[in-house]
Amino acid sequence: MPVPNSKPEITAEVGGQKNVEALLKVSRDFRSDTMTIPTDAQLLFALQASRGDDVYMEDDATSSLERRIAKLAGKEAALFAVSGTMTNQLSIRTHMKQPPHSIITDHRAHVHKMEAGGIAMFTQATTHQLVPSNGIYLTLEDIEPALVLGTNIHYAPTKLICLENTLSGMIFPQDEVVRIGGLARKHDIGMHLDGARIWNVAAAEIERRGLDARKEEDLETVLTDLLEPFDSASLCLSKGIGAPIGSAIVGTKEFIDRARWFRKAFGGGIRQSGGIAAAADYAITHHFPRLAGTHALARRLQEGLKELGCDILAPVETNMVFFDPAPIGLTLDSVMARLKALPEPILVMRERLVVHHQSSPQAVEDFIAVVAEMKKEREAGGHPEKEQVDDPMLEEGKLRRQAALGY
Ligand SMILES: *Cc1c(COP(=O)(O)O)cnc(C)c1O
């Protein structure tokens, strides 16, 4: 559970009453983990940050954040930019030299589905979107036959493999990442990670290994291992970590120097970026250790909904729960409407529920209570629950099929 604070994160005296109310709203907002807001302490920390010009590379707060993230990631250098879309697209642009060339992604990948067609726009690459045969994550066996190698002029050679971790909240098994990395190296193909939620993977891994999320060196150990197979990675700071803005690329110094050049061309150089860099720095220090609690809250939400008879559509491994209330005779629309009509509304965006570090345990309990109440009403109306088939394989098959939908 999130660590109870001795002091509220936002007070009327420091943050203003409007923002006290905004915090209550986001604590009940399950649409995304972008729905966090900066805390008083975070903005007070930002207030003290250096105010140099980062395009001239004269801002200490930005440079020190970049150095910190590079070290945590076990890479030579890092580059701060405004969004995860920008850091993915800058990375991909930096990898790709000149057509003909192509990129392998999962068919659900954010880089090709959710970034406004940026890959085609900025690199002229063809994207090969693969469907994982296990329904959840790509394997070496999926990727190897799809590689375009050699000099046959009909084809666009594979220059980059892009993976995503987490994808729909699911953790990419690291031994498979390592195998894919080996394949890429063998053929001199680049490896990029869309690690928008790699912090969540790191938090889960720290827990699994019995390490301490508050220790910089423990985070470094885990993140370095996770990113070792990649030439570059994009790490969002405004998702689970809860920075107001920002994302970072990590890679070799040469790669980052080149990406910095493209960032300028994209119009993405920021002048006095110290305040936002400091807010992100604060978030790594103070919010990262809360992710384990976030994940526990997601598990509680999953258990509550499952106990009531809802389908859980994908494995809950970090901060996302995909649910379907159809087995208890409810529609998503009706559940969403009832949650929104509460005196203190709960917001959801269809079947994907995202828990973040400011989600409140109370919101999770209220959510479960609403579904329980609706289920009871439904039963009282003489519509018995649909018969449940108790077959683990059926359940597993459903999970895999549903996970393939992607978000
Ligand atoms: C959110 C997200 C991004 C980047 O999004 P921005 O809104 O541009 O910061 C990239 N990849 C994944 C998987 C994401 O969830």
From TrEMBL:
User: Which residues does the annotated region (Disordered) include?
Assistant: 378-407
Among InterPro entries, the record links this protein to: ArAA_b-elim_lyase/Thr_aldolase, Low_specificity_L-TA-like, PyrdxlP-dep_Trfase, PyrdxlP-dep_Trfase_major, PyrdxlP-dep_Trfase_small
Query: From what superkingdom does this record's organism come?
Result: Eukaryota
User: What GO cellular component entries does it have?
Assistant: cytosol
Keywords on record:
Lyase, Pyridoxal phosphate
Q: Where is the composition biased (Basic and acidic residues)?
A: 378-399
Molecular function in Gene Ontology? L-allo-threonine aldolase activity
| Entry-annotated residues carrying N6-(pyridoxal phosphate)lysine | K239
Q: Which residues form the Aromatic amino acid beta-eliminating lyase/threonine aldolase domain?
A: 29-324
Q: Among the record's GO biological process terms, what is one? A: L-threonine catabolic process
Give the Gene3D superfamilies listed for this entry: Aspartate Aminotransferase, domain 1 (3.90.1150.10), Type I PLP-dependent aspartate aminotransferase-like (Major domain) (3.40.640.10)
Keyword Metal-binding appears in the UniProt entry: no
Query: What's the cofactor?
Result: pyridoxal 5'-phosphate
Its family? Answer: Belongs to the threonine aldolase family.
NCBIfam families xrefs: GntG_guanitoxin
Protein name per Swiss-Prot or TrEMBL? Threonine aldolase
Q: Quick one: which gene encodes this?
A: GLY1
